[in-house]
């Protein structure tokens, strides 16, 4: 909650809000060139009250939520420093992206006009779109509650009609061109300073203007972000952070956990789940994976869907939707079989779901207190609460790291990180910018800090991190080392590796790209 809502709730004090036309909250630019002693009394009072209210609220809340409060206050200040330093963009990359999007949209519009889905004036012919959707689904047309033919992006993408799939793609391209390109252009001449919000309901953070935590996967947007001259980006993230947090939570609540045991034994969790799906021993899965076995590779992709999707309490139908993001098309029967297999592998999850179901029996949990951090959250649905347990725990540990990394960057001259600047925080990943010289040592210290801080929360689960060095922000970057073992910048080896401009729609059930686990007649027996 914002300061205004908290002051009203705790003290019945009305704090000046952003909608007050005569308030000073958003008007201090008017006073930029005036000495403070020449400011209007109301402007000076606003500054003093803003600090005073925060102090008063801190004292009032400290007896209840001191530890959680300090974690978030520190992280909020650290993220403010991220915004102050900002991040720059590369002119050539931005102009290339703009030209590519403009050309692609023009070509797409030409096709859609010729197919009658758009008029020459540039307006969409919805009647023609609905007719084409109806034809594509051949009697199984998806409809709204009121009986109208659906024309949303998902319906278009799954229609199997290339023209409708093209129609679905143009909206994303138009948004990139109209929303992201102008922001990227601004970063050519001055740093872009996103706005960071340290606390949303789940305990995670959010970002806007632009949202660096959820940049488009397509279109080469990330590749437009570059470090300043003579600098590199160092990105470090936690390996399967939320699954590690889930394992810790399960051990804390139930005393033991198969998931925790697998991690403690050093097993690669997706491969362990894949072994269960295939009905083979873990050591055999490791050996076959090392030989590049296709069936094990495909089962591991399926295991990732299960490990990342099912802990959130998804039913079979929602799990099928989730798997589409991994290029897998499952019917509800397949999805249910996978869920049963996964629950047999990690039986403690039955207790987890049962407990949360009891808390949300009336539709929502009035108040939930996290068993490890004491964080309180109210009015939470079943799936929200399933996700909350491990999402919040990951965010809490990552925020500890956000603070400590920033402290060393700005205020620890003996640190290898001193002189570097954090620029982005993507839930379980921290990206810093700094001199290329000494960057390998800085990366090592960054990774160690992140492990040490998360270990304060995940006390019984081993924590791994992965660091990469880049000359621009690449989503697909991987660790790369020289002969001496020092981390060096990763760069794409070819054009196709650099950009993922082209969409790759999920395969239909008879598509040869679908894993053999589902194409083989004996797939259900294997599951």
Describe the structure.
The chain is of the alpha+beta class. It contains 19 helices and 11 strands. It has a 5-stranded mixed beta sheet. A two-stranded antiparallel sheet has the order 1-4. The chain has a two-stranded antiparallel sheet with strand order 2-3. α7 crosses α8, α7 packs across α15 and α12 (316-324) crosses α13.
Q: Report the strand count.
A: 11
Going across the biggest sheet, name each strand in turn: 8-9-5-10-11
Q: Which strand-content bin applies to the residues?
A: 5-15%
Q: What is the mean pLDDT? A: 89
In whole angstroms, the N-to-C terminal distance is 46 Å
Give the radius of gyration: 26 Å
Which spans of ≥5 residues are poorly predicted at pLDDT below 50? 499-527
Percentage of residues assigned to helices: 40-55%
Largest sheet: 5 strands, mixed
Structural class: alpha+beta
How many DSSP H or I helices?
A: 19
**Element order, helices and strands?**
HHEHHHHEEEEHHHHHHHHEEHEEHEEHHH
Shape: globular
